[in-house]
Sequence to fold (310 residues):
Amino acid sequence: MRKWHTVRNKAWLRALSYLIIVLVFYFLLKSLYQNWGNIAWSKLHFKLFYLLMSGTVVFLSYAISIYSWKLVLAEIGERVSYLQALKILGKSQLGKYLPGGIWMTASRLYLAEQEGLSKSRVLLASVVEQEYVFVTALVLSILFLGFHGSLLELNLSGLNLLFLLLALLFLNPLSLTYLLKLGMRLFRLEYQNWRFGLRLYLILVLGYGICWILQGLGFFLLAKSFYDLDLGWLKTFIGIYLSSWVIGFVAIFAPGGLGIREGSLALFLQGSFPTGLAVSLSLLSRVWTTILELLLFILAFIKKPEKPSN
Fold:
């Protein structure tokens, strides 16, 4: 009986999460329809160069992210080639859009097993990756938008201070060493005399930090490909992009932050742009990101050319 109630509760929660996502997109599309006539069409244009540059810098961020994950695996005793890391991350990336929130990680473990890798080490490396990805995005969003906050005219000083303190607490070599040793102990992996080195820590902070800046730049270039924007908007666009990603990440009921990220993007952009344009850009951002992730997915199927036999 208890098991049946648990299953029913999970079904209700899943249905509620779907309803929230549908409602967010409904109100976004409704707002777009109502404000379509207010868009300044004279300021709109299409410049292929900026769109191509957007895709290029986002793909560069993917390349750095894959290399960073490869370094984490090597640190915990699982050496892989860059091509193997690309296959695992590229093929599993779209799993984040499936309901349940586990399919991206589950597909990574399956692909790792196919490559003859330790599923436990791949899982630990993925945990480290997610921690770095989230915390660096959170910290950079604070830095780019200003410590006091510049979204929705709210003073976020106290909240931002708390976030920065938590980042220092969890994202340092000592804490990561302890957490990873705990994880390695749980998975019965060898961990004697092992520690998370300062060099790797700095490389990962820099690597994931650059990844986020490049993705924020990609978002700015996407907007610039059809709307006149000067370089002075770059800092704000990066901060807004990162803030909306963080909100989508913590909304665990929404696969891949679907709907939540678009809603927060539109809300933040409305402070500086017409509503119709803000909503259009938020929806276009999701479409563009999905296209690039599909390209990465296809790229992950490329096989290493075999050496000709003598």
In short: The CA atoms of residues 242 and 267 lie 14 Å apart. The mean pLDDT is 79. The chain has eleven helices and no strands.
